[in-house]
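so im writing up the methods section and need the Serine acetyltransferase record in one place, dumping it here so i stop losing it
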Amino acid sequence: MDSAPRLRMGEVASGRSAAIDLYWHRLRGEAEAAMTREPALTSLLVSTILEQPDLATALAGRLGQRLAGDELPPEMIARTVLKVIDAEPAILDAVHADLKAVVERDPASGRLMEPFLFFKGFSAIETHRIAYHLWQAGRRDMALVLQSRSSSVFQTDIHPGATIGQGIFIDHATGVVIGETAEIDDEVSILQDVTLGGTGTHTGKRHPTIRTGVMIGAGAQIFGPVEIGAYSKIAAGSLVTTTVPAHSTAVGTPARIILGDAPANPARNMDQMLTERDYSAFTWVI
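--- predicted struct ---
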């Protein structure tokens, strides 16, 4: 019989809250240090971080600032974000995991402040999390407005119906397109100019499913209801139109598969290079 102690749901929630609070205090410390170094940024740092009571409020305010336009003032966006987080507190767990993914996988970012304030990939993902909740709740017009603003401001186009897990890193983000029925598991890394596109005119499942630990290189195009297996790597510029087995690399146009070639966790190590393999042994995808 298993005699190990088990956490109650309240204890799990408490643990998650502690992790989020730890990141919030770290973010505030980074903002205070940055303000000392760059007094000209005092207004930005105070308004977005230092005068905010918690991570949820700060995130709502920052997304409001970045997404605001003639049709949506920042205050309305911020209120919408806070209402969604209040209805679905688990969104903050995803925010925490996404911030963690950036600072662990991007050597150009050693601070939480950088993705939180400046990186459009992070902002695009968090905007999608709000839009997805609205889409599922039947508020599809508001979800589409947020999608439209995110597309214009962050140069990403993520349909609010797409299902996206936690710990997602979208590096550089420009040109990323993710379709309505796409599914992305936890702990996935995606570089710029990637398309997770559909095929056909039917309304069912028509976009890719990306399993955990996958890295998709810059400019890769993946079409149709195919599955990219866990811990696989899609090389930059590849065109993929069928399933890629787990722990494999797909490379080329059309893509060829190197079975069992991917490193242990491509999404985390972000290794863009191919191993020394004989290309004559590749299996064609299409």
